[in-house]
Amino acid sequence: MTVFHFLNCAALTFGPHVVYYSATPLSEYDTIGTCVKAAVVYLGTALVKLVCLATFLKVPENDNFDPYQELMKIFIGFIDVAGLYFALTQLTHRNISQNHKFQAVGLGWAFADSVLHRLAPLWIGARGLEFTWEYIFQGLEANANLVMTLSLAALGSLMWLRKNKPRTLVPIIYACALLLATMPSITSYLRRSLEWQTPRVVGFEFFSSLVMAFISWQLFSACQRTV
């Protein structure tokens, strides 16, 4: 039963990444190399963030929401944006379209994030003797993070790769990217300050990810029509 629970949670956490790659044209264009490169860039970015967090943030004395700490986390979180910029603009990619490039980068980025932050807790905790919903919600959070990362990568491709986008859409693109980049601090505020329980936070993340995915898709489509 414990192994079965672990396999279910692992499939919920990592399965959507594999399904997305297999069910989209990414597999047809053999973009696995781009996904791997993006994952490596993510690991380097995560290391830089870890050093910055250890340097500039102190260990909290309690679990309350600290505005200063969260503001610093937001600034440090923009290292992710810099990493995405590098992955989208500086890495050498196969001759693939901008549409496939941002999807491959976002998928590799989200998969590396799930492996780094969720694989060890799953391996240690989901094989426990007592059933818990914690790792089910953790898998659902990974799915929401996948959608948000793909949305941020799409917005990043519009900001840094699309030259002839409508000027009226530029502020909206940057505002949506800023909102996605600060989403971890928003969820932290909901947990610590408003004391939302995990199911409610995960529901918020799912709803937010779907809304941002729809907006990103509309923005991307509008910019595509101007070509």
List the helices and strands and how they pair.
Elements: H1 2-23, H2 25-28, H3 32-56, H4 67-89, H5 98-125, H6 134-160, H7 170-181, H8 183-192, H9 198-225
Provide a descriptive summary of the structure in words.
With 227 residues, this protein is mostly helical. 79% of the residues lie in helices and 0% in strands. It contains 9 helices and no strands. It has helices at 2-23, 25-28, 32-56, 67-89, 98-125, 134-160, 170-181, 183-192, 198-225. α6 (134-160) packs parallel to α9 (198-225). The chain starts with a helix and ends with a helix. The mean pLDDT is 89.
Give the CA-based shape.
globular
Question: What percent of residues are in strands?
Answer: under 5%
Order of helices and strands: HHHHHHHHH
- Given helix and strand content, the structural type is mainly alpha
